[in-house]
């Protein structure tokens, strides 16, 4: 399919005063969590001629091995995907002797995508604008936009039916 986007207004201060510009932002039209390990294993097994269980086993274990390497202070690079690096921090102290191991914590994990992955996505990505008339007041839209969007097929959000929790 491709990625559906929304248009959002952002305000900026400029020498002339406040300026508003509009930007594309991602609209997620998928169940929470995206593509699951199971679905990914199905796709990979089908394309590689492997057993789905074997692929799923590797996918399930991969985060454990990445975590293990990060705990050892190493970065992890998966060619074609990208690199994972751990960032640490601590409170600020007035003397270097006060920065003790118990005060250090993980601040975040950085993922840097492989250049080839980014390049492939940039070349082969299709984008579709979610109809502006669905979320912008009609008064601010151009008449030709409203007319054009009148004939766009309805985009429905796919969501799972939730059962009420008790």
TrEMBL record:
Task: Report the GO molecular function annotations.
Answer: DNA binding
* Top-level taxonomic group: Bacteria
- Residue ranges crossing the lipid bilayer per the database entry: none
Q: Does the keyword DNA-binding apply?
A: yes
Q: Give residue ranges for domain HU.
A: 1-124
Protein name (Swiss-Prot/TrEMBL): DNA-binding protein
Concerning SUPFAM superfamilies, the annotation shows: IHF-like DNA-binding proteins
Which UniProt keyword terms apply here?
DNA-binding
Which InterPro entries is this protein grouped with?
HU-HIG (IPR041607), HU_DNA-bd_put (IPR005902), IHF-like_DNA-bd_dom_sf (IPR010992)
